[in-house]
Amino acid sequence: MGMVNSAGRALYDLRVLEISRTAAGAFCGSLLASLGAEVLLLEQEEGHPLRRQHPLVPGQPDANADASIAFDVLNSGKRSIRIDLGSLWGQRKLMALARLADVILEDGVSGQPQEYQDAKHLWEQNPSLIVATISPFGQAGSTAHYRACVGCDLIEYHAGGLGYLTRAYQPSGEPTQPLTAPDTQARMRAGSVAAAAILAALLAREVDGSGRRIDVSTQEAVAAVLAEVPLAVYQLEGRVVGSMPVMGPTTKPFLCQDGMLFVGLVELHQWKQLFSMMGEPEWSKDELLTTMEGIVSHRDLLVARVQDWLLDVTIDEFVREATPRRIPFAIVADVAQSLTHPQLRSRELFCSVAHPTIGEVFQPKGPCLFSETPVIVAGPAPQLGAHNLWCEKDLLG
Fold this sequence. Notes:
Layout: E1 15-19, H1 23-34, E2 38-43, H2 69-74, E3 79-82, H3 88-99, E4 103-107, H4 119-125, E5 130-135, H5 154-159, H6 162-165, H7 185-208, E6 212-217, H8 218-223, H9 229-237, E7 253-256, E8 259-263, H10 268-277, H11 292-297, H12 299-310, H13 315-322, E9 329-332, H14 335-339, H15 342-346, E10 350-355, E11 359-364, H16 388-395
Parallel strand pairs: 1-2, 1-4, 2-3, 4-5, 5-6
Antiparallel strand pairs: 7-8, 8-9, 10-11
Helix pairs in contact: 1-7
């Protein structure tokens, strides 16, 4: 599958030089590419670290630089230029590319610039250049020099405060140890923040023609999530809160015959509707269950009985009966169910991309729709250095 022409797409005339090492920069570049930007992935001789990240495509050896699913999904539609940025020749080539670019996007595992001494040298070549850097703690501050792991965002995630919010609770109501989200959710969020900042900087450049320096801290991108309830409670009451403990079936996940779901029962009439769905068993007619106070006082027993009943109910059966009764619920979708969810399929979030060495790769497009400009995956993830000749012959001449 070749590259799709980006003409007519939202960012069709934007050229981005991506010098990334983690999922943060890769995801940011992926978002821009899905909107039509030409993203040139500058890779060192050994290739992007994500090329070696597991899991690998089944049947492909570890030595295959195209076998990482993470790399393939986060780098579709980009061009790969293999370059030794530590050499004088590589620095000269970077400067030549900077003269033709709109954006330089870099990330790393510390707050130090990755491949050049100072952005001012780039602005000497191109005064309108936007330079965006994503790092664990930003480019300035007391911990800017701290290093994080290349392959995971455990440090940034917990430094931002989210681990405390994602604690689970025991039946007694006591919190468990802090948890972290799977994969690299903190860095993906930082990549989203960087993409938005780049678009804002491009808009500002339309006014004054000047370039911008963008400094994105993954810790700050995560901590900004606290601005809703946790920060408000702390300011108003001086109290630190985590996730809400389980007070009843309203926040408890239940196992069904073919999956899991949450049932939100916060009002008495919702409980009565659920009892009706269950066939109004004899125990549900107890006078103690005619008030919310009685229901809350018998929480553990009710949880057990609802759970026993749901083990023989499919999700489709529950949805069909609960919807007209206006019982709040949420289906806990796993990856397989997300891929086949009718709403996501109707909006065509996922697509299949043909890769020249590993075959079909099923992946998401950009998570938004435009009325006039398409959001598409322009092509497969590039092989290492696949566009060096194009760069020398067609781009730099």
